């Protein structure tokens, strides 16, 4: 079984581009916009002073959206394991390796990011609420461990920004320079 199907080529393309199924395209973009929104919200929140009431509201929203995106990422990983991807267009081996490495690191970051945030929240007195539902705490109030996990969370955030830029730059390079219609695989 495959998750790809053929579609008509974009104007100027030589051959039809193999595509992902519509549901997986939608999942890709939901995750992408969710992560970009979470990164923006996270960067905004860290600049807010402690004790500001809106900060707690934004923090709880960040946690809930983050865990929702995490569940979507897990769903995407299961689909990726279960089904074949459309084949990549011909490209140099180093480009194929760069694409594979970047995508692999994106998946690692998309899993490690919410886990480190959840663990950081487990080592404070507030814990985590998922859309208002309290989740189990896996720790106790410990400033050192909380700082460690939130430090990891922050480092992954910056790494994720770099990986997203590389991912988008690679897709745009293929679309505008190589003109191999790679981007059409994931466009709605």
Structural commentary:
Its main location: membrane. The protein has helices at 22-46, 53-82, 93-122, 143-178, and strands at residues 4-6, 18-20, 129-130, 133-134. By secondary structure, the chain is mainly α. The strands form 2 sheets. A two-stranded antiparallel ribbon has the order 1-2. The protein has a two-stranded antiparallel sheet with strand order 3-4. The protein starts with a strand and ends in a 10-residue tail after the last helix.
What's the level 1 CATH class?
Mainly Alpha
The biggest sheet amounts to: 2 strands, antiparallel
The strand order across the widest sheet is 1-2
Termini separation: 21 Å
How much is the radius of gyration in Å? Answer: 19 Å
Mean pLDDT: 89
User: Which CATH architecture is right?
Assistant: Up-down Bundle
User: Total domains, how many?
Assistant: 1
**Strand residue percentage:** 5-15%
Based on helices, strands and strand pairing, what is the structural class? mainly alpha
Which runs of at least 5 residues are low in confidence (pLDDT < 50)? 1-13
- CATH fold name, please? Fumarate Reductase Cytochrome B subunit
Helix percentage: 55-70%
The string of secondary-structure elements, in order, is: EEHHHEEH
Which of globular, elongated, flat, extended, rod-shaped describes the shape?
elongated
| Beta strands, count | 4
Treating each run of at least 4 consecutive H or I residues as one helix, how many helices? 4
Give the assembly state of these chains: single chain
């Amino acid at each position: 079984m495959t998750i790809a199907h053929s579609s008509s080529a974009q104007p100027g393309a030589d051959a039809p581009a193999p595509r992902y199924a519509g549901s997986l395209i939608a999942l890709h973009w939901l995750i992408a916009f969710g992560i970009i929104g979470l990164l923006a919200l996270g960067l905004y929140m860290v600049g807010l002073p402690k004790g500001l009431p809106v900060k707690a509201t934004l923090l709880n929203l960040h946690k809930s959206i983050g865990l929702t995106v995490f569940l979507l990422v897990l769903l995407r990983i299961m689909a990726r394991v279960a089904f074949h991807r459309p084949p990549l267009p011909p490209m140099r081996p180093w480009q194929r390796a760069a694409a594979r490495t970047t995508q692999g690191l994106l998946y690692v970051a998309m899993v490690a990011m919410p886990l480190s945030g959840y663990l950081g929240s487990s080592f404070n007195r507030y814990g985590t609420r998922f859309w208002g539902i309290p989740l189990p705490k896996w720790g106790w109030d410990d400033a050192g461990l909380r700082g460690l996990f939130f430090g990891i969370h922050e480092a992954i955030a910056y790494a994720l920004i770099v990986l997203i830029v590389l991912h988008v730059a690679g897709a745009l390079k293929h679309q505008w320079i190589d003109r191999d219609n790679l981007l059409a695989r994931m466009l709605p």
